Structure formats: C-alpha cells, structure tokens
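Please fill in the sequence for the structure shown.

STRUCTURE ENCODING:
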C-alpha cells in the first residue's frame, strides 16, 4: 500500500491506498483506508508499550541470553570444526589418489574445493555469531535506553514533534504493519525483535455521515418551524447552543 495525505483542519492526515493495479491498468482503487484513527491507535500502542518496565524486562532477558553465550559458542564452534574436518578429509582423499586415474582425481579435487568453500563459509558464520554474542550492553547504553523509555511518550504526544520524527521512531520499533479491512480494520503489528500485537480499529465514517446534523437537532428545528419563521428558528437553535453538522451556528439560510 502507498500513502497520500489530505488536510483535515490544521492537521495533515494520511490515507493508505492499494492503487498500483489501478494505476497500471486504469481500474478503480483496490483499497482505501483512512489513516487518522489508524495512526492514532498505533501511536497509543507505542506510547503504552515503550515504558521503563517493559524495557527493564527486555534488558533482563538480554542479560540471561548473554549468560548463555558460552553454550552457543560451543555449538557454533562444533559446526565450524565439522566443516574443517570434512575439508581435511577431502584433502587427504585427493592427496592419496593416483594422479593417473584422471576421472577419480578430478572428482576428488572438486569435492575438496567444495569442502574448502563450506569451511570458509562456516568460519565466517562462526566469527560473525561470536562477535554478535559478545556485543553486550554496558551501563552507559542501558542508561540511554531507560532514558528513552521515560521520554518516549512525551516526545510522541508532543504536538511540536514533527511527523517525520514520529516516523523515525516508529521505524526503530516496528518491523511491519498488515491491514485487513473487513467489518473493521484489523491491524497486525510486528515489532523489531519478533513480538506481535493485533488492534481492531473501527472503519471511518463517510464525510457526508459525519457532517449530518444530529437527528435531535433536526427534530427541534421541525418543531420550531411550526411556530416560528426560519430566521426566528435559527435564533432559537443558537440560543440553545445547538450547531449544525458542519459545526456552525444556524442562520435563516442554514441547511441540514
């Protein structure tokens, strides 16, 4: 899905659209999801999720995983040693063959080269995993993470925070979001790290419904028109502090 924006009051609101097929083949838009309520729901989830408590738990889990690094290192080293053994075995087989038997020699040489490539890949994989296992957090990094947890809700909800900064924060926390449009919008969120969460957001009402004057106001208008002129009816409605579906005061030219 792609995103486009429209202005609602003073706020720029996103719309998520599936329109590639329509653009390429001149057909109607496949899906159109109003993003205002959707973004607000995801933002509330982030503000509730990124807290000192949840991060403290995550850091405790990370420490437990770090404590098991020796066991992981042993398992990774076994894979590397197995590849080295296979490469050494292939080398000895090749060295022992009679060079006069060309087909056998060529086959054993190919097996040796293949084993050497596997060994190089295994060694590279082992070194990368070992480096990752030893990349723990120091006290300074932990303090920065906890400070972020305390500041995140304030930064996210601050109206002075630009939308581009909220996008950057969301990208750091969220891997992807899947939208399923049915009776409501099912929002499946996958966080970086593997955790998932599902939200259900009501479908946005069409603009013509949102701008309808409430039925109670219409009924009061009908009652007043039985006794008053249109101008007098408008004055009575305004005196009762009633407003139209557009959020405006009534005049003798006001429509429903």
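FILLED IN BY: designer on duty
SEQUENCE:
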């Amino acid at each position: 899905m792609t995103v486009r924006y429209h202005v609602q009051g003073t706020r720029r609101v996103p719309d998520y659209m599936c329109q590639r097929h329509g653009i390429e083949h001149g057909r109607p838009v496949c899906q159109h999801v109003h993003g205002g309520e959707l973004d607000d729901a995801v933002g509330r989830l982030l503000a509730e999720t990124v807290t000192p408590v949840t991060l403290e738990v995550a850091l405790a889990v990370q420490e437990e995983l770090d404590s098991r690094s020796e066991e992981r290192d042993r398992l990774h080293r076994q894979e590397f040693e197995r590849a080295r053994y296979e490469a050494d075995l292939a080398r000895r087989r090749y060295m022992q063959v009679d060079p006069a038997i060309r087909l056998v020699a060529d086959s054993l040489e190919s097996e040796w080269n293949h084993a050497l490539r596997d060994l190089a890949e295994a060694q590279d994989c082992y070194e990368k995993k070992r480096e990752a296992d030893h990349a723990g957090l120091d006290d300074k990094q932990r303090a920065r993470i906890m400070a972020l947890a305390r500041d995140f809700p304030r930064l996210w909800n601050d109206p002075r925070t630009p939308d581009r900064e909220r996008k950057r924060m969301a990208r750091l926390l969220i891997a992807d979001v899947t939208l399923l449009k049915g009776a409501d919008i099912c929002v499946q969120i996958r966080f970086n790290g593997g955790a998932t969460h599902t939200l259900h957001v009501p479908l946005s009402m069409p603009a013509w419904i949102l701008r309808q004057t409430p039925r109670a106001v219409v009924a009061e208008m009908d009652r007043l028109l039985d006794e008053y002129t249109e101008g007098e009816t408008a004055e009575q409605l305004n005196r009762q502090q009633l407003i139209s579906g557009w959020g405006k005061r009534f005049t003798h030219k006001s429509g429903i």
